[in-house]
Each structure stands twice: as C-alpha cells, then as structure tokens.
Amino acid sequence: MSSPIDELREDKIRVGTSILEIFVRLWPYFMRRKLAFFISIGAVALGATAGRLAVLVFGKAIDSGVALNDRNVILFAAIGYFILLTTSALMDFVQAYVFGKLGNGVLYELRSSLIDHVQNLPISYFDKTPSGRIVTRLTNDVVALGEVFTQGLINVFAALVSMIAIVIAMAVISVKLTILTLLIAPPLAWVIWKLSQQVFEAQRASKAKLAAINAFVAENVGGMRVLQLYGRV
Fold first, then answer.
1. Proportion of the chain in helix, strand, coil states, percent, rounded to 5
2. What gap in Å lies between CA 64 and CA 186, rounded to an integer?
3. How far is CA 97 from CA 25, 45, 93, 101, 104, in A?
4. Which of 4, 82, 153, 205 is most enclosed, with most CB atoms within 10 A?
C-alpha cells in the first residue's frame, strides 16, 4: 500500500496544470458535440450583452425621458428594457439547459474512458494503490472537473463578455475616466491570482484527505470479515 508521503507526492504531480491545459485536453470531448457547445457559448454571449444593453437603455430613459419629461422616450425605453431583460433571462435558461446536457455527456464519456483505462492497468498498480483512491479518481474528481466546465467556464465567459460590454459603455461616456478606472486592473488581477493560488492549495489538500478517507473506508469495509475475526471491531 502507498504511504502518506507517496499519496501527497501523487496529488502534487500535476500542480502546475492550468485550467487552459485541462481545457485543451478535454477539447476533443466538446468537439464531438459541436452544436451544443457553440449554442451554449452563443447564448452566454447574447445573454450577457443583452443584460448590459438593458442598463444603457435604462440610463437613456432617465437622461432623455424622465429628465426632459418625454413620454415617448420613456415608453420606447420601457419596451426595449423589457425585451432585453426577457432575452437575457431566456439566454440564461438556454445556456444552462444546453451546457448542462453537454457537461453530463462529456462526464459520461470521460468516466467511461477512465474506467477502460483502469481496467487495462497492470496488477502492480492495484497492489500499491488503495481502491478508495481509485474510486475517488473515478467519481469525486470527475464530478469536480465537470463543475469547472459546466459552471466555472460559463461564468468566466459570461463575466468576460460583461466586462467588455461595460468597458465599451464606459468609453462611450468618458474615455479619460475609463482609462483611469482601468489602471486598477493590474493590481486587482494580481490580488485575485494570489487568492486563487491559496484556494487551489486548499482544494488539493481537501482532495487528498477525501481520497485517504475513501481508501480507509473501502479497505475496512472490504476486509470487515477479517477485522471481525481478529476482534478489531
């Protein structure tokens, strides 16, 4: 059986792997479902854009409608605002539904590939690796990976589109103020990166402990007859 040192070393083999590297390796799985993938991305882009445009329309209603007491502007702004919010909500539903099905399909295929891979491993691997750790790789780790792409990827892409739309809207209002605002972006990005590193370290530690617990439970349940025979329980 592997020692705690071996387990820790195994969990840190690919510490430097980035989200981009993982996405590149999983890209073939997504490309087998191209239509669903690009529908999801398009829905995210359209929904985020509609949401930002709704804010501009609201501002137009205040500046040119309420301030000038122009009811026609207010009416058209209200209609446009309603259409944009409805579009944004509809696109949120489309991307959640389609990307959810896409993610489940990718997870099913990925888990099937992993099971086939495990079945072809040599006997020596199973001699030195607790069964609980193997089960963790095939279940918890795959689910965690799926959450990254069914939730994290969509949220990051939506935030990126929203950020671009916001910067464009700010530039339309005032280029100088937009540039001054963007000056805080580099230090803010550095703080976010440092915090993300701490989160990743905590997640790795949590995953290692979960694998150790699963290994302990699997070995004890599997050897319950022997444990009871020797009076250990």
1. 85, 0, 15
2. 36
3. 24, 15, 6, 6, 11
4. 153
Q: What is the pTM of this model?
A: 0.63
Is residue 210 within 8 Å of residue 136, measured between CB atoms?
A: yes
Show pLDDT as tens, one digit a residue, over the chain (233 residues).
Answer: 444 444 444 544 444 556 667 777 778 888 888 888 888 888 888 888 888 788 778 888 887 877 777 788 888 888 988 999 999 899 889 888 888 788 788 888 888 888 888 888 888 887 777 776 777 777 777 777 766 666 666 677 777 777 887 788 778 778 888 888 888 888 888 888 888 777 777 777 776 777 677 667 766 666 666 656 666 55
| 111: three-class secondary structure by DSSP | helix
